[in-house]
């Protein structure tokens, strides 16, 4: 079984993210190829990047960085459940990405985005720019959730068949990419400080 880590990217009080990640987790846990875990950045609680060395060196001074490194390193694929804030990604997500370097390489990533007019698609476009230089492989399709149409005043999500179909297709593509990228991950040279 491959480890799929679903990252809940919003950390703000009153966030909508948990109802969306709960919906996606239920689908993902039915996929036969993945062992699925949720990582909530609000619970991880990374401070604003505070490592004195560049992440490419893999020399981590802080326990919170070593814990985050272990989670990402043990993961084979990711799904980022992210809102769009002011046409971009949440600061907590960019911060979490920037903490590490080698641990992200040659791993596929899918997106479940949400927002108002664009359903989070501007955030996804930004994430593709941020993650590709880390040698991650963004997959399509993604899931885009328009909040005005699908989340009611009580905060309940009303998913559509199209959302479920897109999620299933994304999970299938993630599984294919994990297999395709496995050889690159095995031959990649990771510094002993990270690999050990």
Automatic annotation (TrEMBL):
GO terms for cellular component: cytosol. InterPro entries: Flavoprotein-like_sf (IPR029039), FMN_Rdtase-like_dom (IPR005025), NAD(P)H-dep_reductase (IPR050712). One of its GO terms (molecular function) is oxidoreductase activity. Gene3D superfamilies: 3.40.50.360. Residues 3-145 form the NADPH-dependent FMN reductase-like domain. It comes from the Bacteria. This is NADPH-dependent oxidoreductase. It comes from Brevibacterium aurantiacum. The lineage of its organism: Bacteria, Bacillati, Actinomycetota, Actinomycetes, Micrococcales.
């Amino acid at each position: 079984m491959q480890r799929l880590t679903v990252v809940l990217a919003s950390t703000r009080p009153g966030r909508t993210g948990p109802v969306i990640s709960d919906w996606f987790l239920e689908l993902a846990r039915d996929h036969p190829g993945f062992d699925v875990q949720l990582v909530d950045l609000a619970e991880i609680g990374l401070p604003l990047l505070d490592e004195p060395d560049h992440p490419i060196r893999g020399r981590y001074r802080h326990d919170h960085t070593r814990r985050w490194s272990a989670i990402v390193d043990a993961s084979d694929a990711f799904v980022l459940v992210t809102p769009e804030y002011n046409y971009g990604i949440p600061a907590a997500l960019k911060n979490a990405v920037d903490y590490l370097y080698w641990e992200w390489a040659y791993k596929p990533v899918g997106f479940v985005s949400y927002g108002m007019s664009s359903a989070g698609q501007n955030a996804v476009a930004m994430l593709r720019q941020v993650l590709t230089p880390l040698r991650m492989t963004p997959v399509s399709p993604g899931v885009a959730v328009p909040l005005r149409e699908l989340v009611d005043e009580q905060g309940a999500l009303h998913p559509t068949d199209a959302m479920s179909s897109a999620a299933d297709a994304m999970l299938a593509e993630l599984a294919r990419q994990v297999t395709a990228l496995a050889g690159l991950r095995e031959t990649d040279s990771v510094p002993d400080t990270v690999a050990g």
